[in-house]
Design brief:
The protein is mainly alpha-helical. Helix content is about 60%, strand content about 5%.
């Protein structure tokens, strides 16, 4: 299944949260048995003899994406919600996918393939291992987790697209799920729906989108249209067309489109936390030899501008040592929840400061090692 990794959206990257799905192993099967028992009691397991449409859709999906069907599929009674979910998605368990009765009634065979492929992707990419924003208190961390959650949906949509027989079926599935309506009421003029996306962009920053676990269905539609124009998409179906874009190019287009709707609050917040930690960490390094000469102060101001003056003024207070320690603790506590890329960049900048300042090398390395521990990074420091 690793060959599907090439289609992941670039922000669908759990390593930024120190998560490696390939290393995950489940220790107990007790929960598997309990959950399966509940499904067997209250839902119908898919069998082509009694659910031919669903069974055929499942077979077509696994044949198309060329992976083994190790899944349990169930249909559960729900006439109000067109929904699907993949549960118990550990690599050691047999995953269960359930589809509601309303979903099956609403979607055509091809559209159902899109949804099934989407849910399979959640298992393939082990999205269940991703952090849950409801379980954290810190605002910036919540926003970063939500970014990952939205990215996971874009990745899953791509596998859903590859699992069905065309772009139109994927877009129809998204429209039906967004509206709850079928062909009797909907006209599938996709350009009209994309006009709605432009109207959404014109409104500017949307708080509801910023705090949503899923991108707008309009964003998802646009993302699939762009995906259908990539070299990688055409290579998957082995057609003669070469595509107009690479996945890397459309990933940037999608990212920019999302930012037009949710704003740049996440980037600004991450940058602020990063810069604050760098400021106080650098000051700690400058003070490694218990001195802070006029030349060093000038260097510090050149690095950090107006913020440096405020930091220097703190050193004139009678309790400056305690205040500095509090500033370092607070700033690095927040920085410890940054993405891995930002933390690594912060470490490299702190090492650069260490190389470029005066004082004993070993004392500076000791301070940088302490700062790395605050970030939760366990590795030797050298420069």
């Amino acid at each position: 299944m690793d060959f599907l990794d090439k289609y992941k959206y670039f922000k669908d990257d759990p390593s930024e949260f120190e998560i490696d799905p390939k290393e995950f192993k489940k220790n107990s099967n007790e929960l598997d048995e309990s959950h399966l028992s509940n499904l067997l009691t209250n839902s119908i397991r898919v069998n082509k003899k009694i659910l031919p449409k669903v069974g055929k859709a499942i077979d077509l999906v696994f044949n198309r994406i060329k992976i083994e069907n190790n899944f349990n599929f169930f249909v559960t009674a729900d006439n109000t919600q067109a929904n699907a979910a993949c549960s118990l998605m550990s690599t050691a368990s047999r995953p269960d996918i359930f589809l509601t009765s309303r979903l099956i009634e609403l979607l055509s065979l091809e559209e159902l393939q899109f949804v099934i492929g989407h849910e399979i992707a959640h298992y393939v990419y082990q999205h269940a291992l991703y952090p849950n924003y409801n379980r954290v208190e810190e605002r910036n961390l919540k926003l970063n987790i939500l970014t990952l959650s939205r990215a996971a949906e874009i990745s899953a949509d791509r596998i859903g697209f590859l699992s069905c027989s065309g772009l139109e079926h994927s877009l129809k599935a998204l429209l039906k799920l967004a509206s709850g309506l079928d062909e009797k009421h909907l006209k599938f003029k996709f350009s009209v729906y994309l006009d709605q996306l432009r109207d959404l962009e014109d409104l500017g920053k949307s708080s509801s989108e910023l705090w949503s676990t899923h991108p707008s269905f309009l964003i998802r539609m646009q993302s699939l249209i762009w995906f259908s124009m990539t070299k990688e998409y055409h290579e998957f179906f082995e057609v003669k067309k070469k595509g107009s874009y690479s996945l890397e190019e459309i990933d940037e287009k999608i990212d920019n489109k999302i930012k037009k709707i949710i704003g740049n609050e996440i980037d600004i917040s991450n940058k602020g936390i990063y810069e604050t930690a760098l400021l106080w960490g650098s000051l700690d390094i400058y003070l490694s030899d218990k001195t802070f000469s006029k030349i060093e102060q000038k260097e510090f101001i050149n690095r950090f501008g107006e913020k440096a003056n405020k930091a220097i003024s703190l050193l004139k207070m009678s309790n400056s040592k305690d205040m500095l320690e509090k500033k370092i603790d607070m700033s690095f506590s927040e920085a410890s929840k940054l993405l891995k890329t930002d933390k690594n960049r912060l470490i490299e900048e702190l090492k650069t400061v260490g190389k470029e300042t005066g004082g004993e090398k070993m004392k500076k390395l000791k301070i940088i090692g302490k700062l790395l521990n605050f970030l939760g990074v366990k590795k030797p420091v050298s420069f």
